[in-house]
Design a protein that fits this description.
The chain has 774 residues and is of the alpha/beta class. The chain has two domains: 2-335 and 347-397, Alpha-Beta Barrel (TIM Barrel), CATH 3.20.20.210; 438-773, Alpha-Beta Barrel (TIM Barrel), CATH 3.20.20. The protein has 29 helices and 25 strands. An eight-stranded parallel sheet has the order 1-14-13-12-11-10-8-2. A five-stranded parallel sheet has the order 21-22-23-24-25. Strands 3-4 form a two-stranded antiparallel ribbon. The longest helix is centred in the C-terminal third of the chain and has 27 residues, at 747-773. The radius of gyration is 26 Å and the shape is globular. The mean pLDDT is 94.
Length: 774
């Protein structure tokens, strides 16, 4: 029996990579200094896994920004607009330009599109493909890192996104072809990579093919058969671990089991029944091994050794121990680094901490499970086994978890509780009379730049170095300046800036019962952006108002409308580590009722426009389409419960990030938000087509500039995007706004961009007036 790990967090236990990357972008450290930080993180990760007893240690799971972008650079799929940078800059600057855009020394190129990695909160950079796309080996990062580990006396298992998944992750940037047809051009580069790795002594390679968990066409399944037969024919001595995760193989199981690979990796956390399906099918070849993903790679709960051992023992009984690998369910990049860093009992109590395991601890769980599965005596005499059993039993019986008042309130939800008083047509008329907004009204998504100074205030307040009165005075000053800027720049609907908030989910979790927090539980969202998800351990309720104070204060400063800013129940659920002892739908409904209370209190305080952000609603979709309806039913209902306690003339907004909307557009309409804002600029308004084709009835704000890039778009660029939007959506339904919140941006670029945005909206109003006159 072997132990296997699919990937390890690359940010560093203290977010070393984030800090170094941002210093490099700011010009404060050299490229060599940044590269050295990466090298140290890799070495630390490899040594940690070696010392823990992992047999198959991954390499090439490290990335300076995103593993899909790494592969795009590796296979030379560099879009034309970056070719000048490729000729004049180092490869790392080219890489970052593709991820973030570039606007310096006369260059002005937009970033590549970004979207969610399957149903996680991790974002990847979307490959761009053209007809007859050519590929060539541009970067040998995967080979270099394998050699780097060898110099440390560690022979790793290189990890590579499989060729079919890579193509399916991308987008066709012109008509007339299907990206899957590019496989003939792509495969020779993969062969070149495998040749180099084999020549350096690699015996195992992990090819990640999570698209095998999705609904595939016959053509795509046939492509899997053809490609993996070709790989096996050309590399008969290379042991290929085919990794599928996040769901079952489903109807792809027969195709998968016929592939000539050494090992299949199974996610037995998300799909525990697939082991029985495989063992009972009789179609697993006698020379093929199974990697059992029994440790949850996406959540932070301690493994239940008894349950996992029952699964391992079933597989061993059928196949023999020498054909079994014990593993996490997926890469551990979705887990925080190290629970040992949580030393503050006030932040994370010992009772709850005993229920948790981060990446470092999950690695230890993997090796302990192998030990216990191969030696029952060790199990019976092990302190580790006894502690695991006790922690799991304590969690089941803890009085912290259950609140009967919350459970009864969920049971009491009535039929009309998820419905506004009247239809949108009626509400829209009342809102127009009440709010008196112009054509193409301008607004922002919520947050404004959180400068190092603002973050230092929060840190000092938490340490007790600032009193509540002193802290509030500083926040009031920042809020006033932000309101003044928005008034002076001509924005129509203002926001207070959210300077009191650390994170759009953490801020609410800190004020809701049933949540707890970590000090260092960071995970990567994209690039250098790390988030620290709250931990939902029990029933959720809202003991007190959470946002009313600051929204009311901001509204008192201006005659213009100020939006109340909330995070929606589905996003709070998706972006937290969620309890796994009850249905996610139940937890989401509890959160929805808490947010509903806040919405009602905001309206009572005079806030007439309230935004309930749901950027994660598309992300939460199950990977298999046959399971969508059930999820969308409770997710949409949760949003409606949160939004439906107010009068017709109170305008409800929502915001969504990086989503393909075509296949769920009816469900988005069913949410019945008065205004929806979406991220559109990186896709050049392509995402708006779904709303146009559907004839979306409510109002919509397609983002006109990308806030994830430091570049400032021109007025003409934004007018062009608005013209594209107005060509498919009636002008009286359109709002003008950035793609997302501005928290991570700098004030200088923010002010310039918003002033250009307002001017773009004014030009569109003039054009619309002239059109009416004609």
């Amino acid at each position: 029996m072997k132990t296997n790990n699919l990937g390890y967090p690359r940010i560093g236990s203290n977010r070393e990579l984030k800090k170094a990357s941002e210093l490099y972008w700011a010009g404060k450290i050299t490229v060599d200094e940044l590269l050295n930080v990466g090298k140290n993180i890799r070495a630390t990760n490899w040594e940690l896994q070696k010392n823990a007893g992992i047999d198959l240690i991954p390499s090439n799971d490290f990335s300076y920004y995103d593993q899909v972008l790494d592969l795009t650079l590796t296979v030379g799929a560099i879009p034309e607009r970056y070719q000048e940078i490729a000729r004049t800059s180092n490869s790392l600057d080219l890489y970052f330009a593709m991820a973030r855009g570039s606007q310096k020394e006369g260059q002005d190129v937009v970033a590549m599109e970004m979207t969610k990695w399957f149903d996680t909160n991790y974002h990847y950079i979307v490959p761009e493909f053209t007809k007859n796309q050519q590929f060539k080996l541009f970067s040998t990062k995967i080979v270099s890192e394998f050699i780097e580990a060898k110099k440390l006396n560690i022979t790793t298992k290189p990890v590579l996104i499989g060729p079919i998944t890579y193509l399916l992750l991308g987008k066709e940037k012109e008509a007339g072809f299907e990206r899957i047809d590019l496989i003939e051009n792509l495969l020779p580069v993969y062969f070149e990579i495998l040749e180099k790795l084999e020549a350096e002594g690699a015996t195992y390679i992990q090819l990640d093919e999570p698209f095998l968990a999705l609904n595939l066409t016959d053509k795509e399944r046939n492509t899997y058969t053809k490609v993996y037969n070709e790989i096996n024919k050309s590399f008969p001595n290379l042991k290929v671990i085919l990794a599928n995760y996040f769901d079952c193989f489903g109807e792809n199981l027969e195709t998968a089991l016929a592939l000539p690979v050494d090992t299949f990796h199974l996610d037995l956390v998300r799909c525990p029944l697939q082991l029985d399906d495989i063992l009972e099918s009789g179609k697993l070849a006698s020379n093929v091994n199974l990697s059992l993903g029994v440790i949850d790679g996406r959540n932070i709960w301690k493994n239940d050794f008894k349950k996992s051992l029952a699964i391992i023992e079933k597989a061993v009984a059928a196949l023999g121990a020498d054909r079994i690998l014990v593993a996490p369910s997926c890469s551990l990049i979705h887990s925080p680094c190290d629970l040992d860093l949580e030393t503050n009992d006030q932040t994370l109590t010992p009772e709850i901490k005993q229920w948790l395991a981060f990446a470092k601890q999950k690695i230890k769980e993997v090796t302990l499970l192998k030990q216990f599965a191969t030696n029952e005596t060790d199990r019976n005499n092990s302190i580790n086994f006894a502690e695991n059993s006790l922690a799991n039993q304590n969690r089941k019986s803890s009085k912290l978890i259950h609140n009967e008042l919350v459970k009864n309130r969920v049971k009491a939800i009535a039929k009309g509780d998820d419905q506004r008083q009247n239809t949108f047509a009626t509400r829209r008329q009342k809102q127009a009379e009440s709010l008196q907004l112009p054509l193409y009204p301008t607004t922002t998504i919520g947050s404004f730049p959180q400068t190092p100074e603002v973050r230092s205030w929060r840190a000092k307040f938490k340490k007790g170095e600032l009193s509540q009165t002193e802290y509030d005075a500083l926040l009031e000053k920042e809020t006033k300046e932000t309101i003044r800027f928005q008034e002076e720049s001509g924005i129509d609907v203002l926001v207070h800036g959210e300077f009191e908030r650390n994170d759009m989910v953490e801020y609410f979790g800190e004020q809701l019962d049933g949540f707890t927090f970590t000090k260092n539980g960071w995970v990567q969202s994209y690039g250098s952006r790390c988030v620290k998800p709250p931990v939902i351990y029990g029933d959720v309720s809202r003991p007190n108002p959470m946002t009313v104070k600051w929204s009311k204060f901001a509204q008192s400063l201006t005659p213009k409308w100020v939006k109340g800013m909330l995070t929606g129940p589905v996003t709070i659920l998706q972006w937290s580590f969620v309890r796994d002892d009850q249905a996610r739908s139940e937890t989401c409904t509890q959160i929805a009722l808490a947010i509903r209370d806040e919405v009602v209190d905001l309206e009572k305080a005079g806030i007439k426009i309230i935004q309930i952000d749901e950027p994660a609603i598309r992300e939460g979709l199950p990977l298999r389409k046959e399971e969508w309806a059930k999820y969308l039913d409770w997710a949409v209902k949760a949003f409606r419960i949160s939004a439906s306690g107010v009068a017709d003339d109170t305008q409800i907004h929502t915001h969504m990030c990086y989503s393909e909307f075509n296949d769920i557009i009816q469900n988005i309409a069913d949410m019945d938000a008065d205004v929806i804002t979406i991220e559109c600029s990186r896709s050049q308004m392509e995402l708006l087509d779904a709303f146009a084709d559907f004839k979306y009835p409510n109002e919509i704000g397609p983002g006109v500039y990308d806030i994830h890039s430091p570049r400032v778009p021109s007025n003409e660029e934004m007018v062009h995007l608005l013209e594209k939007a107005a060509a498919v959506i009636p002008a009286n339904q359109l709002w003008v706004n950035p793609d997302c919140g501005l928290k991570t941006r700098h004030w200088d670029e923010t002010k310039k961009a918003l002033i250009e945005m307002v001017n773009a909206a004014k030009k569109m109003r003039v054009a619309a007036t002239q059109l009416e006159t004609v």
